[in-house]
Specification:
Blueprint lengths: L1 H28 L4 H28 L3 H9 L6 H9 L2
Helix pairs in contact: 1-2, 1-4, 2-3
């Protein structure tokens, strides 16, 4: 389960960075929202999967609620999922 969470966390982090960088650039600088539309749904699915897996993994990893909160909060901070991988999953 931990390895699945690591892969989902990596993909969620990459999709978030692409959405916030290239997606916003294309949408506002080039007036082309297609990149945001194309990446928005996969990122949303990965985000929800990340949160569900974090809650499921809480018991296996013996996280307290503070740690679970940090892991979940990291999903909305750029590069946050990479921090969680390095600090809590290795």
């Amino acid at each position: 389960m931990k390895n699945i969470f690591r892969v989902v966390g990596f993909l969620e982090g990459v999709s978030y960075l692409l959405l916030m960088s290239l997606g916003l650039y294309y949408k506002y600088a080039l007036n082309d929202p297609s990149f945001v539309k194309g990446l928005g749904m996969p990122h949303g699915v990965l985000f929800m999967l990340y949160l569900v897996l974090a809650v499921v993994l809480k018991k296996e990893m013996q996280w307290n609620f503070k740690t679970l909160g940090i892991v979940c909060l990291a999903s909305v901070i750029p590069f946050g999922t990479f921090y969680v991988d390095k600090k809590y999953l290795k």
